[in-house]
Amino acid sequence: MLQNKYSKLRFYWSKRYGNWVWFGVVFLLFLIHLLTSRYHDLYYDSSGYWFLANTFDQKGASRFSFYNFNSALRGYLLPLLHYPAAVIVREFFPDAVSEAAKSMGALWAGSVFGVVGPVVWEKVSGKAISNLRRLLFAGVGFVLWRDYFNFPLSDFPSVLALLLALLVAYRSQNYQSALATGAFVAAAVYIRPLSLLVVPFVAGLLLLGPSGQDSTAGIKISWLKQAVRLGLFSLAFLLVGIPQYVINSNNYQSPDLLILGLGDGDFRINEVDNVYLFKINEGLDKQRYETNIGTDYPIPQAIYLDAAGRALLERNGNPVFDSYYKYLVFVVSHPADMAALYTRHFFNGLDVLYPGPYVSKIYGSTLPLSLVNYTVLFAALLVILLRVRQLQASHWLLVGALFITCLASMPLMIETRYFLPLNLLLYAVACFGWPTEWQWRMVPRKHVVSVALAYCFFLAICLTLSGNTQASLSLKPKTLQP
């Protein structure tokens, strides 16, 4: 009888479940957590996004119109996606704003961790992913990022749009897929403007994918077909951008198709209103940022200072860079110092200390979460070292699309969510790319010892770097705690 039960369990465990099942499981996991979490309000940027969703009809005072959207800093698309929920909450459940945001967050989580992330990997690798690996990927996402989904922020929706674009672009076969790819990559851009950098990679993947696949069958793809595919990609992108153009031209007298990125004077450098330029200046002597909503830290801005960056600025007369050219000249003039600064920023982008964007206990222990994170990163590093030579051109384009926004974020004062695409890629490498044939008993003892020592060394380096960063917290240093 026990053997029959064991056989049934093995059957259900080895059975391949559909994407809707995985979406439902991950959605429910996150939803239960979110609805029982400590967060019951929207803070700062998240509150702003929800407010913008209500501006399309001026909180019910007028009919829906893109002309009513009144932000030169944010794109229109994420507030538009929130708009139906915002109207329902406003009209029928005025006290349930947080619950509505959490429900939408669970939808994003179910889509990214339950379906789209694994499906992209299956499409690229050509291999099915086992239940254990999919569960592990969702579990890593839950442990490290679970509280981000309490809030209607742009990070996961923009990454989801990018993943969908990559999924459709990879080995796409028809004109409809080119339209869909253009629409999805435009969605990523109009949710998070920095995603504009991924367009060349996705377009390259769109063109390389079919040719690469068909060349193996001896079929030559015509340049005309490729040109039409690229034209449809561009057309879809432009169509998604029309509402932003309407908003810019009517409300801000600008013919720009892209998000203007103007902060009402909040991001001025020598009278130049440019958010990115402001933030790269900020990132020279500030290496990390967390948003505090608790009582153990006196102000909302938990800033981790960069003493080496501050010293570099002081040695050069505390310059302020009001153009990218001046900043680039400074970087080239101080290659070693800037390489070290960017290395610190890169590590901070991967160093997930808190599972959410708004921290209730800045001085709480981060060690358990860090150990999980460093273990996953070490596993990903091992897989990369073992299998990097197997990557093809299309794989590199996909990696580039996921890495480029992280690279562009490296000069900024880092929040880990800026590195979300790279973090998700590394989690997928660790969970999906680990060799299926690998078993401890098959590994020579000397290699087991080497890997164990390397893991301990990797942990020591990560904990040292993280400890140094946390000790630089501006008002009161933070120490590593068990």
TrEMBL record:
Domain of life: Bacteria
Keywords recorded for this protein, A-Z: Membrane, Transmembrane, Transmembrane helix
This protein's name: Glycosyltransferase RgtA/B/C/D-like domain-containing protein
Transmembrane segments: 20-40, 103-121, 151-170, 182-207, 227-247, 362-386, 393-412, 418-436, 448-467
Coiled-coil spans in chain: none
